[in-house]
Amino acid sequence: MGDGNVFEPGTHWGETGGPLTWRLAETWYDVGGRQVSHSDAYWGNVLSEARRVYGDQGITFEETGTYLTGLNTQLNPGRRMVYGDGSALPTDGRIAFTAPNPSGGQAVRYVQNADGSVQQLARDGTATGPKITPDTFRYSPDARQVVAYKDGKPVYAAPVGKLVGPHGETHWAQKPDGTLVPLQNGIGNPLVPGSDLLEVQPVFPAWVIAKDPDFVVAVVSLFLGLRRMLGQGEPAQANVTAVPYQVPGDGAGIDEYATLKASFDRMAGVYGEVGRRMAIAVSKSAAMTLATRQELANAIMDFNGMAAAVPEDDFAGIMGALSTALGRAYGALGTLLEKQEDPGSYRETVLIPDGARAVPLGPGAAGLPAPPPKNADPKDVAAWWNGLSEDQKQAYAKQYPQDVGNVDGVPAQYRDIANRSLLNGDIDRLQRQLDDAKRYGATKVETEHLSTKLDQLRSIQAKINEQVAPQDHRSLILLDPTSNPRQVLAAIGVGDVDKARRLGVVVGGVSTTAGSLPGMVDEATAVRAQTIDILRQAGAVDPESVAMISWVGYEAPSGMTDPRLLSEDLAHAGAGDLNHFYRGLSAVNPTQEITAYGHSYGSLVTSLALQEGGHNVHNAVFYGSPGLDLGSVSGLHLAPGGHAFYELTPDDPITYTKSVPAAAMLSVPVAGTWLSLLDDATGHPITDYFGNRPGDVDGITQLSTSAGGTPFAGQLQGASGHSEYPRMGDGGKLRMSGYNFAAILSGIERARVTGK
């Protein structure tokens, strides 16, 4: 949603459309200059939001445009939103309100103008008739709507927070006498009786109050409930009440609340038990209780300071501020309870808004040094971690896994402990969300995303729990089921990642997801075994000191027909995280020789990550690459003595992204795969994408993918197509391409087989 009476920019209920657009299997629409497919989740989200705001489940899309059946195309494809009776929604994106007809009969729809006046909404979605300026506003009996009056008669009712008043107000609070007053920033909340008990009032940015005042009520009520547990006066007397807040988010239209709602729901289950134990604590130690009151006030001040710095419309930032403040508050309560009799299991996790995961009472409650801030330099993280005792490290990994599991600079050994402890809970949480989605009629797209994530988590769980040789043990180094709405982000290590002399990091390409990890882990295990064999035959020191990581920490294009394949946007989005990951590995083990592997689109991600610098990667191997956006190997900032290599099978269809000029849509059948090449409507050829071919990069060396003899593995089968590079060939042996992966990782120069 946008301002009080307008949806987000680019959301228009009128007809969408653009220049001639071709389609393959589905229609593409031009929405504010952005191409959106017929099946994109955008449409389901827009439809759900419109139905919610208008309270009309009959709202649907009406298709426009002219189809050319013989050519399977559509001229100027478009769609507009209409009510159940067929009349159009406002064509400029404004919100319409339904009100009783002053003359009786069918209700009338209005739209609000910038000056606060309203006009009737015509059937074609345009404003019509005289402007009406209400002179009085009052809440409806359920306090969910503000009713506008003119000359004592109701004109229309608008959802709370969606109305612009005569002085620019976007929300009102109703006093006991029935009058409405603007809800101002920093004054507390008139809708929360008794909020003056708080020594420090939560202060919210004005845009939060305007966007969703119900959220303000919920947060103030929560802090007030915690404060009431700590009693009033001296000696303190506890006043334990029922859960003091209503779950926000039902009418806010804010994505982050899907996570927040689950957190509030679960917090309700903990609230009563905390209150019971607080009654015991308060009665036993007034002085300690007063100190805890002060710590609660400090937590609110923390929230105020962080919230004030959050950019407008960044609700994720507000959630983070609230999570930190509640963590401090619950840490203070935990410290108090720990010193009382009958503390019970106060360390039971308390769910607060943090990715819908269970967040235990803050580390401070256990006397642990505070962790570095999120996204801190991995060297700083490593320095902090190395300053902890072994008991403290184990406590962090087991009791506070969310502070360890995905933190670059923490050793993989402890990240694995942390992420394994979170995995079962993540699976249970997603299963509940999926069950709720099916029960309460979520969109097909939302349900599919939840189901996909759940399947990915279960495949990861099965893979890391497989019985394998001790030297091939798996470690779950990254587990992030929340930051991407469509898929899980994860990474699995094979071998001793922290102590290995030689470490390979593999990044997948097109269609790679966390669901690909089981196969990637098997391939990494085979490359590790071949590397060890080469090192043994070469008489190297400590030949088994080799490890591999399969990294799926970014969203790759979903397939060869995904238009995002012809853009570097996803690659740039993933490159920063990959660079940070590389730097984390080096911070843990600065002497480790790291080899970076990138396949397909993942080769571009790897190249861009290396170009950011600051890492300690020694060698890079790119295979099946569409291009590296790189002129010279020197731009990769490899460690002294490092080299860059590439592999390309003769029939890899990725070569078509550099050799076939783009028409509006051209489909080329290659090796059973349809490679769809889509022009960006500017007329320039596909060769402009992704920069140089790998073979055109100055200083790079080509490795063989063809059948032939090798220095350490005998005769090997060649690779073909786009996907065989790391896969096993006949006789349970790697192909030439996979052997060369191991040869580079070994560091034995004479092991390589160069050329095509």
UniProtKB/TrEMBL annotation:
Residues 486-659 form the DUF1023 domain. This is DUF1023 domain-containing protein.
